[in-house]
Amino acid sequence: MNQVLLPLVLFACLVAVEPSPASPPDFHLQVVPAIVYKVDDPGNTRTSSFTFEIAVICSADCELTPISANVELSASGFTVERQQWTTEMLAKIKKVSHRILPNTPVASPVRVFTLPEAFDFRLYFRCPQALAIDSAIVRVTVADAKGQRAEQMLKIPIQYYQQKTKLIFPFHGPGVVGQDWITNGGHGGYWNDFALDLRGLDQNYAEQLNDANENASAPGWGREILAPAAGTVTYSRNDIPDNPRPGELTYTTQHDPTMAFLGNCVIIDHGNSEYSVMMHMQQGSVTVKVGERVAAGKVIGKLGNSGDAFGPHLHYQLQSGPQVFRDQSLPFRFQNSDVPQLSRGTYFNEK
Description:
Layout: H1 2-17, E1 28-32, E2 36-37, E3 39-40, E4 47-57, E5 65-75, E6 78-85, H2 87-93, E7 117-128, E8 135-143, E9 149-159, E10 173-177, E11 196-200, E12 224-226, E13 231-236, H3 257-260, E14 264-269, E15 275-281, E16 293-294, E17 299-302, E18 314-319, E19 329-330, E20 347-350
Parallel strand pairs: 2-9
Antiparallel strand pairs: 1-4, 3-4, 4-7, 5-6, 5-8, 8-9, 10-11, 10-20, 11-18, 12-17, 13-14, 13-16, 14-15, 15-18, 18-19
């Protein structure tokens, strides 16, 4: 009997000390923004563009390294394009955009919208409109600190946005577009991907009235800002000091620097989950209060240089909800604009 039991005991001991196999990394993928919209590119390219970030979500203290990414673009169920990103390629575009780090600025929007991510990377696509891309499948392989690998997949619908509110241009007179949509090289956060920076010009389309480095030298300084459509004011701020001159920022000294980032700002709810956001107005110029019902064309403030502004201009965006930094921006068009598609460097003269 002892001769039988002894091998069994030895086997049990060996099994007990045998290390269990390491489990693969536990993570999932999240697309930012939540809904990906494509837009037709300016000019006669007959292309459409879309962009999104893939965030690799895991526990707060996880360390994951991107190994590869594969993307399939499809139309009506048929794959029309494939891309493969190697470890070396991903290392060049990997970043941490949605997690608070020791060096995250106190005014950073990341402090409002955070994700428990290991890393993220942005993908950008420009495709012929005729391909009618309507989805993307992204597969990402990662490795943990022990070299264990795992893959996750995410299917992302791609669509055009159907604007519901008829918007009018938010000020009169000559001007030029500074930054525009991220698909054309402007802005860059999911919450302002489709924002425009609008600068006022004089009647000769000049950028400056004189050579002085001061706000009043900008022709748009103090121009009346108009409600682009009827709605209810959901946010109004009027106390942020104007930056003393172009290029000199002061908003970070405010008690709430993240919201002061917007400067003096008005947000209007137009219904149908569409909200107009107008930022950087002059201190003391905002004429509307939260809860007030406004008509299209009502003067709501004056063009200024407050908050995170490089100089006097109006930052305008349409977004899906009332919270800046949380709700995503939406593609839009002004119905009465004399320019069909406003893009970086476009001059306009709105009546």
